[in-house]
Amino acid sequence: MSRMGDVLAGFHAAWEFESDSVLIRYERGIRTPKLFQALGERRVPLTALQGVSLSPGRRGTVVLRAEVRPGADPLLEAADGQLKEHGDPYRLVLPAEKETLAEYYADELRALLTESGPADRFLVAGPAGPLSFKAYDGKASFDGTTVRFRWFWTGASSAKWKAGDQSFPVTELGGVEWRSPELFEGHLRLLRRDGADQPAQADQDPAAVVFGLGYGPVHESLPFAAAVLEAVRARGPMAAVAAAHRRDPADIADRIRHLGELHQAGLVTDEEFSVKKAELLAEL
Prior knowledge:
Residues 15-109, 140-228 form the DUF4429 domain. By secondary structure, the chain is of the alpha+beta class. The chain has helices at 34-39, 74-79, 99-112, 158-163, 218-234, 241-244, 249-264, 270-282, and strands at residues 6-9, 13-17, 21-26, 41-45, 49-56, 61-68, 91-95, 131-134, 138-142, 146-151, 166-169, 173-179, 187-192, 208-210.
């Protein structure tokens, strides 16, 4: 940038431009998204970015957005496209009167970006541990080397009770599957490095915790998933998640039928039914 330490402040966050990075500081105000408050601040190396855009926002605002290279940020990798627009940590919303200033910084930033395409390693640091959160059926904790699930008698399935509380060294893991608690069947599942079969439904899998109303919120469960994923990648090549977790077509058909029954009973909205059905079909 033209000067180190230049700051562009917007709603809920401020970007500080350095010669080799952008430091994003998130506010802790009552209206700031909880995920931003949980992240606090993030230093994003310019090598992790491949573009920047400026577009009109809502109600007299403009939006400056940094485009992150695929595979560069464990938080976005864990989120897998499930974050809602207002929860995107790389969007800076500004008053419309700052559009000229925002365009200046966007141009300056573009001129410094030299990388594009998938990154071969994480370039943005994941959330710091230790971390923990309460899911519907248990408490998940991570100390940097081991993930632990302690089951709640009020929510855990009999399969999980029989298996007992679980401990998973990251050296035995190949990846993490996070399904947003804001979607149908939200959960956090740990994927085995050896690709061993796991129950299709998270509530029957001792390597998964399920979310529910008020349990496993995004601002707690997503940073947790990102921290675990970063630790897994740091300890060796990640197992092919898609191959390790590919569904049996018959199981997909059963789950779609079950989803249809919930839809007919009015327990799932039309939108939720369409979204989840598409997700299930994509797993074939």
